[in-house]
Structures are given as C-alpha cells and as structure tokens.
Amino acid sequence: MKYRLLLLLVFLGVSPAFAQTLQSAGGAIDRNAFPDPMAPKDPNAAKSVPNGKSGRAALDDSTKLIYGPQTMSYILEEDVLNGRGAKNSVDTSLHLFHRYLFQERTGFLKAHLGNEGTAVRTIYVKRPDQIGSQMGYNAYMPHSFATDEVKYYQTKSPYSDVEYYLGAGGQTRLNFTFARNIDSLWNMGFEIQRQVSDKFLTDQKYKTGNQTLTEQWGVLFQTNFRTRNNRYRLLAHLNYFDQGIQDQGGIQLLNGLDPTTALNYTDNGALFANSGVQSNDSFIKFHFYHEFIGFKGLQFFQRIDVENRTAKFKDTDFAINLSKLYYPKNYSTQTDSLYNENQWQSFAHQTGLKGIFRGFTYRTYFKQRYWDVNNPMVGLKKNRLENYVGLFLQQKFNDKIDFTADGEYLLGSDYRLQANFISPFFQVKASRTSISPSVAQKWAYNAAFQWDKSFTNVLFDELTGSIELKSKNVYFRPTATIQRIADYIYFDTLATAKQTSDAIGVFRTGFSVGGTYKRFEWSALVLANTKTGPDVIRMPALVANANLALNVQYKKLLYLQFGVDLQHQSAYFADAYMPVMQQFHLQDKYEIPAFVQADAYVSLRINRVRLFFKMQNATQGLLNSNYYTAYLHPAMGRSFGYGVRWLLFD
C-alpha cells in the first residue's frame, strides 16, 4: 500500500508537467454580496511601488491589499465535463455560517447518533445516484471528501482557508485548505480534515477518563492543469479517509427505565457498558480526469478511478451483548467475540466523446468497472466485471431555459434514465433507476449475521417539480415529489436484509421561502410526507426548519448577525442502528416523540475573519425535553459552541 501511495503522489505531481509539453506542439438573493472592506477595486490593475521599494518594505498605512476573494476562483469537475466554464467564488458571507455540525449543514435532512462523526442516515428515502454494485457500508461516507465536490482552484496568490469549530461533547472539527498556482496554468493544493467527539453515555472507559467516541482523519491532494491554448485540461485528486469509533449501542435501559424517562437524565449508561465494541472504516481513492478539445463540437475525455477500502467491526463482549438480545443469533461456536471485516477494491475507467454546437451539448461514453470484496475472517470472496454505456444531451434555449436528458446502462442489468427541464418560473425532473442490491444487502458472514441472497434489482421512479416565485426581496418555491419504489430492500427488526414484493408510494410536498427586510433576513423550509404500501420505510410526516437573523454593521469594520435557528420533526418510529454492518434497521418498540429545537447565535466578521458563538438546544426543558436522533441515541442537550474561519490570500 505504501508503494501504491508513493506512485500515486508522484503521478499526481508529474502529470501536469508532462501534459504541459502538449501546448508547445500545438433567483435567489446573493449572500456573497455582503460588503467586504478588504476587496480590491481592480485586482488586474498594475500596482506602482513608491520609492523603488518592493515586497513588505513597500507597504504603508495607505496600501490596499491586492489579493482577495475576487482574485481567485474554483471549478468543479462537472463544470468542466459539461463545458460550462463556470468559475465559482469562495463564500465570504455570514449567512448560516453558524451551522457547523454535519446535520445542520445538510439542512437538518440527515441525522446521526447524537454526536458529530457518528453513523449517518437520510430522513427521507433518497433515489440512488449511482448504478452498479456498491459495497453498501455507507454510514460514515458522508463525512469524507466526495469526488463530485472536490474544488480545483485558480489563485493569483497562495490561498489558505482555516476552519476550527468546537462544541459541547468534544465535537471538534479542524479543516485546513491550501492552494497555489505553480504557474498561470497549473495549480496544486491540499485539504486536511480532523474531526473528533466525546462520549456522553457512561461506560467503563469513560469512568477511567477515556472519553473519546469518534476520531476521523481526511486528507485530500488535488491538482488541475490546462494548456495555454485550452485544448488540454487535467483534474486529479488523491483522497484518504480514516474513521474510528467506540460504539456505545445507545442508552442502556435498566430497572424498568423507559426511553422517555431516560431523556430526563444526563448520566445515562451505555448499552455496551464494557467498552468492547469498535468500528473502523478507511479508504484511499485516486481519481483522474482529462480532456482534449480537437474542435468545440468534438472533444475527447477520460476518467480513471481506483479505490481500496476496508470496513471493520469487533465486539469483544459478544456473549454479554448476545444475552441482552442485542444480536438476534449466534452462528458460531465461539461466543466470546464477534468480528466482521470486508476488504473492497474497485478499478474503473470511462472513455468518451463530448462537444458543444449552437447551445447543444452532448456526451457519450463507454465505462468498465471491476470490483472485488473479500471477507478475510473466513476467506470468502466475490467479484464482478461491469460494462456501461452512457449518453448525455442538453439543449440550452437561452441563459435561463434548458432541457437535459441523461442515461446510463449497465449491460445486462442496471440502468438510469433522467430528464430535467429548467425555466425561470418552474423546474420539472423525472427519473427511473434500476439498481443492483449492494454487497451488504446480499451477503453477510459473521458470528451474528449470515446470508447469501439473490435479490432482484430495486426500481425507483421519481417525479419532482418546483415553481419559482420571487420579487426583489422575497422568494417562494413550492415543491412536490412523487416516488414509486418496487422490490425495495430493507433491514427488518432483527437487522436482517429483506425485500418487499409490493410497491411503495411516497408523496412529499412543501415549500421554501425567504427574503430580506431592511436589516433582517429570514428563510424557512417545510416538507410534508406521506406514503402507501408496506410499512418498511419510516419517515416523519412533517419536517420544518427556519432561520431569522438581524444584520448589524459597525463603522464599516465589524459586521454582526444575531439570529435564531428553529427545527421541528414530527413523531415516528425512527430506525435503530446495527454497527456490525453499518445499517439502520426497523424497530417497533418506541415512537420517537416530536420535538422543536431552538438555537440562538451571534456571528461576526472582522476583515476576512469570521466567528460565531452559539447556544444549541437553548429551549431544552421549555418547549420540550431532549429528543432522540435514532432509537436510544439521544441528541446533544443544551450546549455552547463556537467557531472561527479565516481566509488568507497571501
């Protein structure tokens, strides 16, 4: 593995230099408009140096900084792939800056196990984005760097972004981003993420002073290069992720204690009282994209992906937890411990043609992907070679109206069809997806769970629509989603994979609304959900959140924002979590009560430094007591958090 990593790093750095030889041969409100006193008036204007001095010696009290948010930008791979040439600016606003926890940054539409860095699930069922066989161990993947969200920078000066957030329960996240241009055509950079959290349920290690619950490292190296004539472009990154967690299993209900009463206590014991349960998930991924533009209407592109991943679980107190009925069965003669490990490898390349002609964009490709998964505990292995073909079509009628059709087919198996129409007044999107069951759904082999099943493909039909209504200071967007899910695969109350024979219908409607009035800004999201068919997808009937803020400016140097965040979720039988296979599963024992949470905060900005101070769950004990984010996993109670983010451009 060390040699592979070394080769990838060398390749990441050398490829742009090698590619450089080719050129020798041939309605919503703009939140980033918040005033920036450090922004240069004309970043491209020549700067005179008084008295012949240079560097720091030329600076005095009247000198304006040359570099800032306006002198740098970033692109996403999707922008390059679709030929949009979009340049995105870094966010410098205070709008929702205080939302530093994971579930807050997702608009409260995802939930974890109460602490930052724990297993994640979506509140509403989500249509899969990828077809083909997947590993299916996805509880920690939302915390890692996503390939389609990697930012490739263009900077006129060295750029750094420092983020540090600290909340109650040791919920700490540190992110550091650095990027700089080697020359005007080649940029390199890296991003480091460190995230930890502490236990707030008591177990044996907690009593001895070891309070660590989760530890996570993420490291991303990225580079992008283009030739001077813009005929060749390269984007590449190396992505490393390592997540470790001391699983606690939720609250232990002793002496007739019920879940509702347990929420009134702050010293609840953990179900895994002996601290003998641990999970680890780690991967290293290499992604490479390059394109050659022969003509505007005929371009060549290629993607290469390599992934190596290992997901582990161990319970050295298996016999004790088996007696508590946490596990449904023991398949092994060994009762003192339980181990589960899956080693995953995949290799993929995608090669195709694309182009743009009179506002019409097309892309067609052929893709091959080989994957294998190995269970080293018993020497079992599965693998598969997959061949795909794909087609993308887009017609832009003008800058505000376009139609997109997208399809991908895994030969002999999965497929994905999608169409999207966007106009200034409404948007409609329709899709059909047939996807193979994941490895975790089809195959399990450990002391507590064993099966090898032949499930059929799951079919998702989805139709979504929204209407755009806005004036100068207010927007209103009604939305509606209809889903039909056939042959749905779920995990039952014993955490065993099952497949439905009847289709499930989901209807969700709601709206987002927001605007500004003088110094106030506000936004809200309301979603109402109902479903028909087998009761194997548990979702709240109503989800709502809102934000109200007051902006204050002091002498053009200090910008403050005082506000309150509100979120509500109706009662429902939220899923339980089984860490052995990183799966959320059904439970019929306890209906999670409805709750309202209010967070009060103040954010401020001085030059390019932003800070916030926040009281989370400030109304606990007033509007309601604490609540559960998953079965027997309580949310963080009333707590104080703060954070700082500093952008540096030289």
From TrEMBL:
KW Ribosomal protein (keyword) present: no
Annotated spans, Disordered: 33-57
Highest taxon, organism lineage: Bacteria
Record keywords, A-Z: Signal
SUPFAM superfamilies: Porins
Pfam family, one: Porin_10
Signal sequence residues: 1-19
Identification of the protein by name: Porin
Organism classification: Bacteria, Pseudomonadati, Bacteroidota, Cytophagia, Cytophagales
